[in-house]
Amino acid sequence: MILLDLKCSADHPFEGWFPDSKAFERQRRKGEVLCPVCGSSEVEKALMAPNVTTSKRKDAGRAEQTKAAVMAALTQVREHVESNCDYVGPEFAEEARKIHYGEVEKRDIYGEASDDDARELEEEGIEFGRIPWLPRAEH
Prior knowledge:
With about 140 residues, this protein is α+β, with helices and mostly antiparallel strands. It has four helices and five strands, in the order ββαβαβαβα. The strands form two sheets. A three-stranded antiparallel β-sheet has the order 2-1-3. β1 and β2 form a beta hairpin.
């Protein structure tokens, strides 16, 4: 995993975790990397300063900031998905196949898939993403 400093076209800075640089570029090209402030998908890598630690307190503070930023980004991703995609529940794998093979009209969907379902979709060459789904904040 790598942590990248990012910024959107409105110069909002934020961070993102990715398996590697290629994963970031692939997600960015597909418009899947969104600014947590304005929702823009026009995102690029920002200049990064080396992470030099001078004390454990700074490490703890940075870890808390990173955790908060990741949680905020995941919350915004959930809101975006729920607002823009059709929920298909546990039928996700079946519906993804129908879309992939042209049996139904293409649309953005979300739902649940078992590890076995996900592995089978990957083997069939069907593109999808697994998102860590955070529970809703209690207000």
